[in-house]
From TrEMBL:
Name of the protein: [FeFe] hydrogenase maturase subunit HydE
GO MF annotation list: oxidoreductase activity
PROSITE patterns: RADICAL_SAM
Enzyme nomenclature, EC number: 1.8.-.-
Organism, as annotated: Campylobacter majalis
Amino acid sequence: MSSLKYIDELAKNREISAYKLEKILADDECNEYLFALANATRKQYAKSEVHLKALIEISNICQKECFYCGLRKPNKELKRYKMSAYEIIGYAKQAASSGYKTIVLQSGESQAFSDELMCEILREIKNTGMQITLSLGEKSYKQYLMYKDAGADRYLLRIETTNKALYKKFHPNMSLKNRIKCLVNLKNLGYETGSGLLIGLPGYTYKIMAKDLLFLKKYDFDMVGIGPFIPSKNTPLSNEKVANIKLVLKANAITRLMLVDINIPATTALESIDRQNGRKMALLSGANVIMPSITSGKYHELYSLYPGKFRLDMSVENTYKNFNDMLFDIGEKVSLSNGNSLRYNERMGL
Ligand code: 5AD
Ligand code: SF4
């Protein structure tokens, strides 16, 4: 049976049952309709404006062992690095002068940077006037508070999947409970909070995916990043299958229909699977943010979460210009606002 009426129900009510969501996911006949509705919703709220946010991969050191990730601690083949504060601040200044309004600092999960040093870096970057997004993994309430006080505005922490069995299987020594606690702490501290999913891990089903998507709705995140699983070498999942890209686009579109005014990045992993169209397809199915890596090649290559991670081999300034032109070509433009989601502004009364 066609899922058309369920898609209409979702677009109208902004919510739907897990059962009906599963039906939408399993049926590919109405994909174009779903994407078109999500795109129209994005345009209605975000007005054909796309946020460009500069990503700096500050360290690939990680203490965790997520089965899918090339940065996992047991991967002894990988050369580890940690940027100096001077390098990070240098990148941030270049980003600011190239036009970026937001800088995203991402790393594996570790204490490679002491909290004091991280706070110093944040305070320095804050002087550029940019908004700061962090993606440093699970930290304590106290650490999140310290970073916030030092100038961090936003935090990204994907839930990956809410299925207990899968979560346990692929995340040794981690707990779903703690991850949710971190997300709640971030929200309570006033961070613009982002979460997201890793689609297509071995054993993933439509049923699990439907529940994962409803979790994003329930927790009412300000930002949601959804990417495909890509098998990475030197990991226990290196011989598994790459995720279905259509399914990731559908997840983006469904998220847009449920959470109309949040920020949704066109994730790099999508572009890594499809160089020509990955990001454009994501925009056309509801995404409104692009986060180009501005980290130089020598570090970017070592930040190998998965193979083929995409990065334009250009200066920081030219990367900005390149995306500016790409967006112009598809009738969009770069947003000149600070990059907050409309959802967050409304939630905080801004
Ligand atoms: N394929 C796709 N995404 C991955 N990530 C880590 N490893 C992989 C992989 N093999 C994603 C996780 C994490 C983010 C930083 O990178 O979802 O949250
Ligand atoms: Fe570390 Fe994040 Fe990779 Fe897990 S996904 S191993 S926490 S970098």
